[in-house]
Amino acid sequence: MASHHSEPFDPAPAADAPADNNPELPSPPYHIVTKPGQLPVEFLEPSAAQKLVIGFDCEGVDLCRNGALCIMQLAFPDAVYLVDAIEGGKELIEACKPALESDHITKVIHDCKRDSEALYFQFGIKLHNVMDTQIAYSLIEEQEGKKSHDDYISFVSLLADSRYCGIPYPEKEEVRTLLRQDPNFWTIRPLSDMMVRAATDDVRFLLNIHEKMMEKLSKVSLWRLSVRSELYCRCFCINNNQFADWPLLPPVPGDIEADVHVPEVDILSVLDVPPGKMGRVIGRKGSTIMFVKESCNVEIHIGGAKGPPDRVFIIGPVKEVRKAEAILRGRMLEF
């Protein structure tokens, strides 16, 4: 491991640090990174001989293609690295590109769409080999016959679920309040104790959650998770070549038993919406989107205020996606 500047993590009282309520998940040390050499060598130089699984997240100002990425958090089993994009600049983030695009490093993250978008448009990084816990949760629920796959759980709710962590996270709402008061919260330097805690808490539970989810996921669900995580990575990263320069989607594993049903592979469809028609696509209070979800086995994502404002992103099996496209195109043609 490369030498690095480190600072001891001084946990706040129990009321401020949810991890203190769980002795099995003690607060890890953290390292503020401003130079590539402060990161572990095995991260900077991915290798098939030393595969890694890390927790991953990003913080920023209006994080998307046009926002500013301020901090990238990397959770290793023994420490959390806070990669400071403001102090380290573009050179620091670009030094992470091989790892973020590597097959040999699994990035565990909760809802990677905007993080991937920011990395792609700001740094040319194609986030790859992601295990998205939001998708994994939905697949496990579906696997157990509880919910359909398009139910999206928040990170706070996932942490509170006793099957995976069982830890309350009220500090998340405190940070959201601060962000509403000051959208540039993550640009403040030096990082305050609260900023360090918030950034660290967003990733340090992910490896534990990953381990418990992997125990529950079937072979088919693992394949679906890998495909859908890749589609989440490219969802808002629309370009002119239909993602031809992105990694291929994972094929169906060859070790799935012959008598096990393997569903049709998921695809990502990007539907262009003519000016002035997005309201019809969404419907009153989201009624059209809800109708499409109920009628078709798909996920639908809309850029909203962060954009892109004129496109709808549909993820699901090919036949179901085509049905959803037809319904939405029909809505666009209505007067």
> Ranges with pLDDT <50 over ≥5 residues?
1-23
Average residue pLDDT: 90
What summary fits the major beta sheet?
Answer: 6 strands, mixed
DSSP summary: helix tally: 13
CATH topology of the largest domain: Nucleotidyltransferase, domain 5
- Secondary-structure-derived class: alpha/beta
What spatial order of strands do you see in the largest sheet? Answer: 1-4-3-2-5-6
Helix-strand pattern = EHEEEHHEHEHHHHHHEHHEEH
Q: Total domains, how many? A: 2
Query: Which range best describes the helical content: under 10%, 10-25%, 25-40%, 40-55%, 55-70% or over 70%?
Result: 25-40%
**What does the radius of gyration come to?**
20 Å
GO molecular function, one term: 3'-5' exonuclease activity
Pfam families: DNA_pol_A_exo1, KH_1
Keywords: RNA-binding
Characterization of the model:
The protein is α/β, with parallel strands linked by helices and 335 residues long. It has 2 domains: 18-234, Nucleotidyltransferase, domain 5 (2-Layer Sandwich); 266-333, K Homology domain, type 1 (Ribosomal Protein S8, Chain: A, domain 1, 2-Layer Sandwich), CATH 3.30.1370.10. It is 37% helix and 16% strand. The chain is built from 13 helices and 9 strands. Strand 8 (299-302) and strand 9 form a beta hairpin. Helix 5 packs antiparallel against helix 10 and helix 12 packs antiparallel against helix 13 (318-333). The longest helix has 16 residues, at 219-234. Mean pLDDT is 90; it is low at 1-23. InterPro entries: 3'-5'_exonuclease_dom, KH_dom, KH_dom_type_1, KH_dom_type_1_sf, RNaseH-like_sf, RNaseH_sf. Keywords: RNA-binding.
